[in-house]
Design brief:
The chain is an alpha+beta fold. The chain contains five helices and seven strands, in the order βααβββαβαββα.
Length: 186
């Protein structure tokens, strides 16, 4: 890993229309040629079931990631989660996922689901840490290369078992962030 240090303060806040320029700078590096358009984001931000956030590096207020989900009944469907390439491996994506889980629960979700590329092992590993399991495959789901999507589902996020897992993961995340910050300062 480079000498770049973990952002000292990450602020996660609601996604606003004036964030689009910075989001559109990250989107192609995260999702390739067939990424969401500016109009797709505008549409998503105007959907009543859409809940979207951005992560900003606090000292510069630089937008470094974003995520969102839909609430449909008692399910949260994670629609996007992306981190600027310069900030990957620094727990920004995990912080966004923790925020999504927390906010989805507040919105009344009992379950979370998403699709992820079959080849995207880092994302699969992240979701797995939070109890997501592969339940099915969408063959040829991605337009750019017809790659399969794995359909992941969480366990019920309102149970005591999930709450214990979630609290343990957050404690581990905080510990790793502290270790990473100490390492990058040396």
């Amino acid at each position: 890993m480079s000498a770049q240090k973990i952002p000292t303060k990450i602020v996660i806040r609601p996604f606003r229309l004036d964030d689009l320029e910075a989001v559109m700078a990250i989107e192609p590096s995260a999702f390739g040629e067939h990424h969401w358009s500016r109009q797709s984001f505008v549409s998503e931000l105007n959907k009543p079931e859409g809940v979207y956030f951005v992560a900003c590096e606090g000292s510069h207020n630089k937008l470094i990631g974003y995520s969102g989900f839909w609430i449909i009944g008692d399910e949260g469907h994670i629609t996007t989660l992306a981190v600027h390439p310069d900030y990957r491996g620094q727990y920004v994506g995990e912080r966004l996922l923790v925020n999504n889980i927390t906010e989805a629960k507040i919105c009344g979700a009992n379950w979370l689901t998403l699709e992820v590329r079959a080849s995207n092992e880092p994302a699969q590993n992240l979701y797995s840490k939070y109890g997501f399991k592969t339940v099915n495959i969408r063959p040829h789901y991605y337009q750019d290369n017809f790659e399969d999507a794995l359909i992941l589902w969480s366990e019920n996020i309102t149970t005591e078992g999930f709450d214990t897992l979630f609290k343990n993961r957050i404690a581990e995340l905080k510990r790793k962030e502290e270790e990473f910050a100490d390492f990058s300062r040396s």
